[in-house]
Amino acid sequence: MIFPCILSGGIGSRLWPLSRTDRPKQFLTLFGGESLFQKTCKRVNHSGFATPIVIGSNNHRFLIGEQLSEIGLEANSILLEPVGRNTAPPALMAAMIAAETDPDALVLLLPSDHLIKKEDVFLEAVSAAEEAARSGAIVTFGITPSEPNTGYGYIKVAAGSAPVRPVEAFVEKPDPARAEAFLKDGGYVWNAGIFLYSAQTMIDAFKTHQPEMYKDIAAVMKSRHGDLDFTRLDQESFEKLADISIDYAIMEKADNVVCAPMAPEWDDLGSWSAIWTVLDKDGDGNSALGDARFLDSSGCLAYAGRGLVSLIGLEDVMVIATTDSVLVAHKDKAQDVKKVVEQLKAEGRTEVDIHPRSYRPWGYTERINAGDRFSVQSMMIKPGKRLSLQSHLHRAEHWVVVSGTMEITINGQTRLLTENQSAYVPLGAQHTLHNPGKIPVRMIEVQSGTYLDEDDIVRHSETSQDS
Asked: The domain that contains 130 carries what CATH number?
């Protein structure tokens, strides 16, 4: 059995302002109403594959759960990393989890933020590599290059036509001249960061090449404990792990590494210009996500998160408009978006971290407006879900139900609110919300007071976490 391990960490800062720390690019629903994370999960939802192991950030746990639920899939386990530690620790942790179920298990390590258009080609490559992995090889998958791209690492593959061939060298991201030479050579492929290996092979590789890291990760895995649908790790122990990629930790040291070249129309979508290349275009090469109009413009990309975006007389320009930020850039400068994010971080701007929509176990909230002493947000509460009983020390709240039926409790008094009905929650009042119906409740919440941050919550029950 092949155990897919889906790595859902990372931020994707070059896709700002849509990609944020609390809602990175793998969770953005840009392609046919599905996110890259969801597409990755569905890609391995076939016979021969076990239910996936998902390894992601603790901060994204509800996003992971929500998006799995939306596509009707369950995970073997959802392992939450307290902090990011690159790809080496997850590679070994996945092997340990798979080996507990099946000593002969194979692990397919997959980034969750890649787009693969020809999934049948990808699955055929995995099938062709299975024998090598069962024989003790660590298989890395290389993408046949279509251009001299300087944004990817390269792999030098032994000559021949076999579906799996020895790796001769791993090469860092090249300059344009070397990238051009690699393309002409024909013996180089892009490093996709996808690996297939037996669980025992990876465990043995860490024992041989990274013995101290193996001991540290084994100790971390002993700290595992369940929390709702998630598996948590001891934060102090995990923070001590080396921050290192599987390439540096194992692949460049091991002598049993082979490569399976493939051409599945792959893209890691690392920039807005890359997003533009895979989207449908009008006759002038313009692409739109959302409500956008183009006049005397060509080769442009427009993203309209809310409202209308219009471009007039522009060429090769990107306009990304979210509810709280707007990015305007030439496509040639798409890689420099990361520099803007770094500058905003240095200024302490929250727009790089906090997305207007925040997911919770019971639904989500979405920021509408805020001022000195007020905040307005919309809320969606799923059928059957309840918020914890709580109160606030510095703010009062006003609720207006837009659709559905809400059961509210304020200072022990319970009643129902239906469409267009409202309720006032005084400062200090104990209160909770419950959706007893069969459809989602949508409501508007207005907060007012001297302090409006989320840590102004006194919980009187733990019915629903982070509510």
From this structure: 3.90.550.10
In a domain, 464, yes or no: no
- DSSP label of 26: G
- pLDDT of 464 reads 46
339 and 393 together in one domain: no
CATH number of the domain bearing residue 426: 2.60.120.10
The 10s digit of each residue's pLDDT in 219-232 is 999 999 988 789 99
The answer to whether residue 466 sits within a structural domain is no
Q: Phi and psi of 116, rounded to 5°?
A: -125, 110
Query: E strand or H helix at 179, and its extent?
Result: helix 176-185
Mean pLDDT, residues 190-216 taken together = 96
Residue closest to 6 by CA, chosen among 59, 74, 69, 103: 74
Say if residue 372 is exposed, middle or buried (CB neighbours under 10 Å; 0-12, 13-18, 19+).
exposed
What pLDDT does residue 178 have? Answer: 93
pTM for this predicted structure:
0.87
User: Looking at the 3D structure of the chain, how many domains does it have?
Assistant: 3
Helix, strand, or coil here: 150? coil
DSSP-derived 3-state class of residue 92: helix
Where are the strands (E) in 286-371, listed by range?
287-289, 292-295, 301-304, 309-312, 317-321, 326-330, 357-360, 363-370
| Domain membership of residue 419 as a residue range | 357-459
Q: What is the pLDDT of residues 57-98, one digit of tens each?
A: 998 998 998 899 999 999 999 999 999 899 999 999 999 999
**Within a domain: 350:** no
Tell whether 425 is covered by a domain. Answer: yes
